[in-house]
Design a protein that fits this description.
alpha/beta, Lyase, Ornithine Decarboxylase, Chain A, domain 1, 10 helices, 17 strands
Length: 372
Amino acid sequence: MRTPFYQYNLEILEDTLKEIKEWTATNPDWHVHYAIKANANPLLLKRINEYGLGIDCVSGGEIQAALDNGFPASSIVFAGVGKADWEIDLALRSGILCFNVESEAELDVIAERCMILGKTAHIALRVNPDVDAHTHANITTGKAENKFGIEIPMLLPIIRKAQQNPLFEFEGLHFHIGSQIMDMEPFRLLCRKVNELQNMLETNGIKLNSINVGGGLGVDYENPELNPVPDFKQYFSIFRDELKLRSGQQLHFELGRAIVAQCGRLVTKVLYVKQGTIKKFAIVDAGFTELIRPALYGAHHKIVNISSNGPLQRYDVVGPICESSDIFGKDEMLPEVHRGDFMALMTAGAYGETMSSGYNCRPLPPSEAGKF
């Protein structure tokens, strides 16, 4: 296998899926949809499908990938602030479970496409609950200044509009407050906001068939070996204890990173060890073309030298891309590094391979299943 490449430990993935099934099995009205934007590798999708999860999509390409990998259209929910006409048409023709609609303008376009195609659409309205997820600014989605969803003061007339249109089946509300959330308090705040909102809607004669609380549960990037599976018990318990569901009401989750992050790593080879006047650099053959999170978010992945047991030394681990932001880690304490050593960037199963690019005319990374 040429480097760099992605390696997926399917045993970790299965352990994660078993935990999810364990903590949701006693709630038949709960439905977990895998957020396919985290990773669409067929190796992973096959196992996720085997465990009966649905799919959360944000593009027509993701809908097609889900269908191509055997997920029934009836398990697919479709969000995204900029759904193109062809994407809406694909979803309508496929018969997906629900559109998570993010604006009144989008609602109008879906109605137009329904009219043209002779279809009806199941609709949930995505609400911006103005909840601070206490996560990186680039991956928070539920605050008033974010582009996602409908603000609460605007919600009631848009619900009425959806209910009155015979082309729509109005199902309920959708929420998503952000990603990589490690503090559980924002999820409690979300539940309370949903409870308040549902009470308000019921005083206006509006009952909801479903609530979709999105995803956002974070993972341990610094100690993946100690915490290979996220704390699903605490996460699902919050919604069980705090959310006041009505009888028969369906609850949907959209987990992505929490399902696949820990089962993947990026394996790269050391090209050069460069001694500067101040720094020592380990220059590897992976760059932000393969794993963009450090450059995009300032994110950090644990770096392991899997070829050396030498004495610890300090390195900046950098890639070959002609950009100063192509850095995986500064002042990393690693066993002595040599040209030809293999390094692994851990917890790279989510937003790694799927965000890779061909910048600098570089080939996309291959992938394989393997244990680590």
